[in-house]
Write a sequence for this structure.
């Protein structure tokens, strides 16, 4: 049966990806490994969008906002606390803060009866509010405790993760942590999506009102998924801030919001692993383009987006999987 | 005297905001009102109008003519986009949002690659005047007049022309319109072109007021967006009313707190309106009628 | 009192239109009641009010002696109300089995779920088509799947809005037998129907709606001989 084959293909793809991620530090240079960590941060952002858009059917422009909140939250906490032992709890706190912000916005949206296109518009407006606000925080009066918000240039001097006062994680161990985070997040999401809650979410995506008539508290479930997606995006943002040591409002802006949409749509929003693969590939691709001096990266991504939406709405990777699943199914004899 | 000077200042600011909001949003509102499509390439269509105007004006073409040509050019671009891409997505609203976003991205990046980070701009015509100790720009008042004239033209277009009647029929019920012999495909293309042309016109009108860069549209997209959401789908009622109300909010906030905070205020107002009046002012009026 | 469902002076207004106007209805546990009436009489609106899809403008609804007027739809579902609506309510991309699973999984324990799904799949005659995506089932099969989904939650009260719409005489008969057997198992059933053959086959009592009001009530025989009922169908009233 094609759908079971599809699921198997997804699992195989994940296994391959996980192995590749684990093997990377042994195969590529330390510089590229460090780059890979930033790709993983954005992969988490893509996963949060794939969850909320692909699985629950809620198109949110706002995932970058939670990405940014996660980054800023980690920065603000660590710049104030200044104890290296506190980095992991700070990371956890940043994730929860981003999730909390998402829960707040989600409450406003879902319990306010906002749905469909208007969710996208509301989240876009919120993202714009946050970006616009953060852009004008340049003056020294804009700070949280000891952490200067920094306006356009953002917050700098953000410390990386550390196991103790003397044991700061270097680029490769940081990468390993990020890889573990991505793998763990994927597994967690797979588990949740197969549960009753996850199945209910998929039912909501197909037919919201009908699903409520079967006893599902639709708004609470949408809120939960939105908050979870916010947490994942926040984790990505915090890791990004850790990677670069800084975070700027441009990570939350309108143009930044385009990138996860493009990457998730291109891979296929209905499949987490497809979104992950396409994110990694497209980031690698656009980075090679810009490092070779080409300005065409964004143009190509824009074209990719239009082509995908019009001609391959399921996404390239998903379409490929489906094709493979059908070929595989038709080449086996039909079982009784 | 103080009072008069203050009052005139407020009036001027309000006119400025009103003009910006109306001119920025008309094109977006027309497309949204007819097809429900949120055209995220709107900012780039404005940008295209600014670029065409600036090129022509720098070559010696009279500004009004340059602006008109810009509007027509943008209209043509819009028609092409609609025929090639947008018309395939009418059943899929969110996909049309995403696709127009991609188009906008290609356009703005394309402009960056083709023309560089900025082009020499045109200076603001008509100069300035002083009143009660403050200096004001004549052109800004002209823009206010343009906004009003454009609203009037839209009224005449939708109420007094064949296109307008057909457009209103198609908005009410595309199926009914089709069964009455209206070519709805052509309606959609024409309307999208009209919306694009209005965007191009706005770009042309504002080109002399600021530097012309590939991200020119980003100075309008928030305002356009906000006005359309608050105003709703009815261009003739919603847009001017929203322009007036938000214009008031904007000029008040900008005067006391600066443009950034004013923008934030507008966005927050939008979020509240979506929650309370999902169909905007148009919805309120429609409900009042029934 | 002991009514499983009672509506007291329930009204629903849309602007100037009174879709439901002062409806009083009382249903006994185990009853099989049919709701009939001309088009526009407010039958589907009534079901939406009972299920919670629409909020009443005034009046109260009691289910098992509990005032459910303010409860959202999902809470009413959890309390034992189930509905098959007029518009298609299956998940077209999911298989028949998965459709049943979505409908039942909140009402049945994890251990019992597989057996419940198989049982209903068999009862609605879709055991062989269990893995087929629902969009590929025939119209009649889809209707039965929907009924199955509404029932897999083992509701106390089942609302069926035109269950035989689009069916031929054979399928209509079979649906009638299914509904009767469900009722015989103890489920109270409220059915909206246009097909008088079906009504005669299953109904114990009939309520006639007209212009949003309860026009008449009685056994099938009483209603069929009721002069005014015939006249409202012919448009004379």
């Amino acid at each position: 049966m094609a759908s079971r084959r599809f699921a198997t293909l997804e699992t195989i793809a994940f296994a391959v990806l996980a192995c590749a991620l684990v093997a990377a530090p042994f195969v590529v240079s330390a510089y590229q490994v460090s780059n890979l960590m930033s790709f993983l941060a954005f992969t988490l952002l893509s996963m949060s969008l794939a969850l909320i858009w692909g699985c629950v059917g809620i198109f949110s422009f706002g995932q970058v906002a939670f990405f940014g909140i996660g980054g800023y939250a980690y920065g603000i906490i660590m710049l104030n606390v200044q104890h290296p032992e506190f980095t992991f709890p700070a990371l956890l706190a940043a994730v929860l803060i981003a999730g909390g912000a998402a829960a707040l916005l989600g409450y406003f949206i879902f319990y306010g009866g906002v749905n469909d296109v208007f969710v996208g518009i509301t989240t876009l407006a919120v993202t714009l509010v946050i970006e616009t606000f953060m852009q004008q925080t340049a003056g020294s009066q804009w700070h949280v405790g000891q952490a200067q918000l920094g306006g356009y240039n953002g917050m700098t001097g953000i410390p990386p993760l550390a196991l103790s006062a003397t044991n700061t994680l270097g680029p490769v161990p940081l990468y390993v942590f990020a890889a573990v985070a991505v793998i763990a997040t994927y597994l967690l999401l797979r588990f949740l999506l197969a549960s009753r809650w996850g199945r209910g979410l998929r039912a909501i995506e197909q037919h919201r009102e009908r699903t409520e008539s079967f006893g599902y508290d639709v708004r609470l479930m949408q809120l939960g998924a939105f908050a979870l997606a916010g947490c994942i995006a926040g984790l990505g943002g915090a890791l990004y801030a850790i990677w670069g040591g800084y975070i700027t409002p441009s990570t939350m802006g309108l143009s930044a919001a385009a990138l996860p949409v493009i990457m998730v749509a291109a891979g296929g929003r209905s499949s987490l692993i497809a979104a992950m693969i396409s994110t990694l590939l497209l980031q690698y691709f656009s980075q090679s383009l810009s490092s070779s001096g080409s300005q065409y990266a964004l143009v190509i991504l824009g074209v990719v987006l239009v082509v995908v939406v019009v001609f391959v709405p399921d996404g390239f990777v998903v379409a490929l999987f489906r094709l493979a699943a059908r070929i595989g199914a038709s080449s086996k004899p039909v079982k009784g | 005297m103080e009072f008069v000077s203050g009052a005139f200042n407020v009036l001027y600011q309000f006119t400025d905001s009103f003009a910006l909001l109306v001119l920025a949003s008309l094109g977006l509102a027309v497309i949204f009102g007819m097809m429900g499509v949120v055209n995220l390439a709107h900012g780039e269509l404005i940008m295209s109008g600014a670029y065409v105007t600036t090129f022509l004006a720098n070559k010696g073409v009279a500004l009004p003519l340059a602006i008109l040509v810009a509007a027509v050019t943008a209209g043509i671009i819009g028609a092409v986009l609609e025929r090639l891409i947008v018309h395939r997505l009418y059943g899929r609203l969110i996909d049309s949002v995403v696709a127009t976003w991609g188009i906008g991205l290609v356009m703005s990046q394309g402009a960056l690659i083709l023309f560089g980070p900025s082009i020499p701009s045109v200076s603001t015509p008509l100069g300035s005047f002083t009143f009660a100790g403050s200096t004001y720009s004549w052109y800004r008042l002209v823009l206010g007049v343009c906004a009003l004239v454009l609203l009037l033209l839209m009224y005449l277009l939708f109420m007094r022309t064949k296109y307008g009647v057909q457009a209103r029929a198609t908005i009410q019920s595309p199926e009914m319109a089709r069964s009455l012999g209206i070519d709805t495909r052509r309606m959609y293309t024409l309307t999208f072109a009209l919306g694009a042309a209005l965007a191009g016109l706005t770009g042309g009108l504002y080109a002399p007021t600021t530097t012309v860069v590939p991200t020119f549209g980003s100075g309008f997209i928030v305002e356009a967006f906000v006005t359309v959401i608050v105003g709703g789908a009815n261009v003739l009622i919603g847009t001017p009313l929203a322009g007036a109300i938000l214009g008031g909010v904007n000029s008040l906030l900008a005067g006391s707190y600066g443009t950034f905070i004013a923008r934030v205020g507008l966005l927050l107002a939008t979020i509240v309106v979506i929650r309370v009046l999902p169909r905007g002012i148009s919805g309120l009026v429609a409900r009042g009628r029934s | 009192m002991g009514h499983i469902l009672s509506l007291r002076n329930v009204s629903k207004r849309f602007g100037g239109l009174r879709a439901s106007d002062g409806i009083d209805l009382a249903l006994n546990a185990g009853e099989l009641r049919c709701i009939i009436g001309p088009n526009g009489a407010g039958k589907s609106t009534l079901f939406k009010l009972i299920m919670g899809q629409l909020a009443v403008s005034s009046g109260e609804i009691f289910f098992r002696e509990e005032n459910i007027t303010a409860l959202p739809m999902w809470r009413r579902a959890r309390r034992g109300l189930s509905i098959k609506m007029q518009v298609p309510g299956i998940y077209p991309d999911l298989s028949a089995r998965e459709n049943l699973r979505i409908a039942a999984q909140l009402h049945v324990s994890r251990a019992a779920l597989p057996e419940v799904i198989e049982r209903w799949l068999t009862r609605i005659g879709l055991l062989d088509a269990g893995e087929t995506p629902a969009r590929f089932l025939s119209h009649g099969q889809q209707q039965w799947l929907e009924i199955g989904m509404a029932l897999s939650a083992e509701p106390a009260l089942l609302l069926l809005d035109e269950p035989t719409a689009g069916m031929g005489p054979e399928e209509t008969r079979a649906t009638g037998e299914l509904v009767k057997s469900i009722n015989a198992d103890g489920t109270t059933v409220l059915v909206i129907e246009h097909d008088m053959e079906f009504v005669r086959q299953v109904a114990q009592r009939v309520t006639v709606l007209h212009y949003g009001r309860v026009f008449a009530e009685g056994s099938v025989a009483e209603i069929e001989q009721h002069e005014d009922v015939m006249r409202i169908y012919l448009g004379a009233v």
Q: What stands out?
A: The longest strand of chain A covers residues 162-164. Residues 218-244 of chain A form the longest helix (27 residues). Chain A touches chain B at residues 59, 108, 112-114, 116-118, 120-122, 124-126, 128-129, 132-133, 135-136, 254-255, 258, 261-262, 265, 295-296, 298-299, 301-306, 309-310, 313 (CB under 8 Å). Strands of chain A lie at 143-144, 147-148, 162-164, 167-168.
